[in-house]
Amino acid sequence: MGWGFIGPRWWRNYLHTHSFFEVCYAFQGQGLFRFAGVDYAVQAGDVFIAKPGVRHEIISSEEDPLGIYFWSYTLYERADAHNAPASGVDALLRAYLASPSVVSARTTAMLRTLELLTEEGTRREPGYLQVVEGLVIKLLLDTARSVVDTSDLCEPLPTPVRTPEEAVTQTIKRYLHDNYARPITMRDLAAQVHLSERHAARLFRKVTGDSIMDYLTRLRLEMAAQLLLDRQARMPIKEIAQACGYPDVRYFTTLFRQRTGLTPALFRQQGGTRFFASSPSLS
């Protein structure tokens, strides 16, 4: 998870999108959050959420400048998620992903968590990484709670009953997640589920709506995007391409640009953000 803050001053970041979730908490001032063409007034104590791929911008008030903490992350379901009993956290995060809410003032515990993250990251005392990990999890769950009616999630969800088609699909997904770094053929996948290549492909599309190879491409590029944004590892782009199943870095670069609108180098430089022409100024 990436995070930081912008001090209370007049600023504007103009229309852009991310390949990940971006969440902002206003600790001071007022402003406007424009999300998917809709304007939302925000003020101190509000949290506002930009989902992946949706155009948005933030405009601080000149009279009462906006100060924010911001953090970003990617959420994706494990390939083996359907094999484990559903938990309250699973239910909360699924409800969060489905929630249409963009702005919330239900943020009682959020500011202190952000302050503790800042303190731990600054002091870096023994054990700070473990503390930060716990605080990051808390921040993610606090964000979900801020836009989800948790009273509907008190009862544990029953383990879903899977159809044979869903079982086959999960086996294929698990194989893709475990092996995306190496060459994968339809013959390999069909062998995992003991079906013909055509039958395996048909069942997968029936359950997911995607072809197997489209799913694999998205998975590989999502993994590549995460590696590109890893500021600690700073892997060369050629190594990232190879680690995600693309031995030809030129092909990887072309495919990544087609899917994201940015080259891998520019994606890294812009922190996963794609900017668009600015919208008209507010009157």
UniProtKB/TrEMBL annotation:
The keyword Flavoprotein does not apply. Keywords: DNA-binding, Transcription, Transcription regulation. InterPro entries: AraC-bd, Homeodomain-like_sf, HTH-like, HTH_AraC, HTH_AraC-typ_CS, RmlC-like_jellyroll, Tscrpt_reg_AraC-type_HTH. SUPFAM superfamilies: Homeodomain-like, Regulatory protein AraC. The keyword Transcription applies. One of its GO terms (molecular function) is DNA-binding transcription factor activity. Residues 170-270 form the HTH araC/xylS-type domain. This is Transcriptional regulator, AraC family. It comes from Ktedonobacter racemifer DSM 44963.
